[in-house]
């Protein structure tokens, strides 16, 4: 097989890239490790920045998003048992964010790709990248055609490594090329999906002595809630009653606000990490999304950052194929990293502002409360939060 761009991974980065390239008349083949059913059912992020929503409409995949997405014009920061609203529309030039689950985005993008009859292979095994520092890179993999297993080779001009944090693209780059910057956090999030109407129209980020809590939602019938927990928290110790009890405590207010409970339909623990590799390219391989960087979920940025990367990549590849210029491709990593580091900063800032750290002392606790008070009373500070949350401008 031969194509122009081999895309490894059918997550948000790989799928958005394929549609952006299609629009420019550039061929691509997507190679995905898992089945379609698996990637369309994997529950992950749920909040789309203004730019991501716009892009879905531009690419003609925004119909369900328009019908089912929940637009949010703000969030609540809750501390000392009182809520304080940050009004995005007022503070960020009328922009807002939209709640629409990542796996619904994936369904829309996969459907568009298949409807356009463009190549996408699921269940590709033992994928390996070759000759990435040459002008003729290629990928080998095993593919399970019904009843047989064959090794395939895909030749291409460029490889887009969109295979997430655990993929093979980043690790195919020779040792010594990449510099890694990372921070692990001494806590995780215990997340639940509950069959319960959300108790608030907008997200609530709660700072509490017992630890952070977040109230979010998937639809008008389903709530998504999180509790700060140990990074290796044992879920067996968290029967449903204990989870609701803890959420009630951390989200309680002085004004009688009520948290609606309901059957818990899914629960899991997510670790928290900040991670960046530099550069995000080597030879003819460009990394995009989680394969190059991870943010803690507090700022709701992971998916949106992956989309921002591939927009830059698509423009650079478009320039290469239309005029032969390589300037934008050579700048790919530097262009992306400017945004990546700003988003890392914001995600870290939200995380350190709202969570309890094991080595915190009463001074740290007071400092957090003072900062929350400042953020919710200073227009300059709340505007900084709002413009980062709805998404920084594109380059
Ligand atoms: C449990 C969890 C919860 C999360 N919650 C949030 C949240 O609330 N908010 C938020 O903003 N972000 C969240 N994130 C992060 C967000 O989901 C990611 O940032 C986003 O999915 C990144 O998209 P991506 O396309 O770069 O990578 P991915 O979505 O990871 O996609 C990579 C794709 O590559 C495939 N792949 C991997 N290895 C190979 C291989 N060897 N060969 C072929 N294909 C391969 C994978 O199967 C996958 O389909 C969460 C992540 C996780 C894991």
Class by SSE composition: alpha+beta
Number of helices: 12
Kindly, what is the distance between the CA atoms of the first and last residues, rounded to a whole number of angstroms?
34 Å
Strands in their spatial order, largest beta sheet: 6-5-14-15-16-13-17-20
For the secondary structure, the number of strands is: 20
Helix content: 25-40%
What is the CA-based Rg, rounded?
A: 22 Å
Mean pLDDT: 96
Q: What ligands does this structure carry? A: flavin-adenine dinucleotide
Low-confidence blocks of residues: none
Strand content: 25-35%
Main β-sheet description:
8 strands, mixed
Shape assignment: globular
Task: Describe this protein's structure.
The chain has 395 residues and is an alpha+beta fold. Helices cover 35% and strands 28% of the residues. It contains twelve helices and 20 strands. It has helices at residues 12-23, 36-41, 50-58, 63-68, 88-91, 102-115, 240-251, 302-323, 327-330, 332-354, 362-377, 379-390, and strands spanning 5-8, 28-31, 47-48, 70-72, 74-79, 82-87, 97-99, 120-121, 124-130, 138-145, 148-155, 158-161, 179-194, 204-206, 213-217, 223-229, 264-278, 281-282, 285-287, 293-294. The strands form four sheets. Strands 6-5-14-15-16-13-17-20 form an eight-stranded mixed beta sheet. Strands 8-2-1-12-19-18 form a six-stranded mixed beta sheet, covered by helices on one side. A hairpin with a 2-residue loop joins strand 10 and strand 11 (148-155). Helix 1 (12-23) runs parallel beside helix 8 and helix 11 packs across helix 12 (379-390). It is globular and about 65 Å long. The model has no long low-confidence stretch (mean pLDDT 96). The structure holds flavin-adenine dinucleotide.
């Amino acid at each position: 097989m031969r194509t122009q761009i081999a895309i490894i991974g059918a997550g948000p980065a790989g799928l958005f890239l394929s549609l952006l390239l299609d629009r420019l008349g550039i061929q691509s083949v997507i190679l995905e490790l898992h089945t379609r059913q698996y990637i369309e059912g994997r529950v992950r992020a749920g909040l789309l920045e203004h730019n991501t929503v716009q892009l879905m409409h531009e690419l003609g995949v925004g119909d369900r998003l328009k019908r089912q997405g929940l637009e949010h014009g703000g969030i609540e920061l809750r501390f000392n048992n009182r809520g304080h609203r940050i009004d995005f529309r007022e503070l960020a030039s009328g922009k807002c964010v939209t709640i629409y689950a990542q796996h619904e985005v994936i369904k829309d993008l996969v459907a568009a790709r298949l409807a356009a009859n463009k190549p996408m292979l699921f269940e590709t095994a033992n994928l390996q990248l070759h000759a990435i520092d040459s002008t003729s890179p290629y990928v080998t993999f095993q593919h399970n055609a019904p009843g047989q297993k064959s090794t395939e080779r895909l030749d291409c001009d460029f490889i887009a490594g969109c295979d997430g944090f655990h993929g093979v693209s980043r690790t195919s780059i020779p040792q010594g090329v990449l510099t890694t910057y990372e921070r692990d956090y001494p806590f995780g999030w215990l997340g639940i999906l509950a069959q319960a109407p959300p108790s608030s129209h907008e997200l609530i980020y709660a700072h509490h002595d017992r630890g952070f809590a977040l109230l979010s939602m998937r639809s008008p019938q389903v709530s998504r809630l999180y509790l700060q927990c140990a990074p290796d928290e044992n879920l067996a110790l968290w029967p449903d009653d204990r989870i609701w009890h803890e959420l009630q405590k951390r989200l309680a207010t002085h004004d009688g606000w009520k948290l609606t409970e309901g059957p818990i339909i899914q629960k899991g623990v997510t670790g928290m990490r900040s991670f960046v590799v530099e550069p995000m390219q080597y030879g003819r391989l460009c990394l995009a999304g989680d394969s190059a960087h991870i943010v803690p979920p507090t700022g709701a940025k992971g998916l949106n950052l992956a989309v921002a990367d591939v927009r830059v990549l698509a423009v650079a590849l478009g320039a290469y194929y239309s005029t032969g210029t390589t300037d934008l491709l050579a700048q790919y990593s530097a262009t992306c990293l400017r945004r990546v580091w700003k988003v890392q900063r914001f995600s870290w800032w939200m995380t350190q502002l709202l969570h309890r750290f094991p080595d915190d002392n009463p001074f740290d606790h007071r400092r957090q409360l003072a900062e929350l008070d400042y953020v919710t009373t200073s227009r300059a500070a709340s505007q900084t939060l709002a413009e980062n949350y709805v998404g920084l401008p594109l380059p």
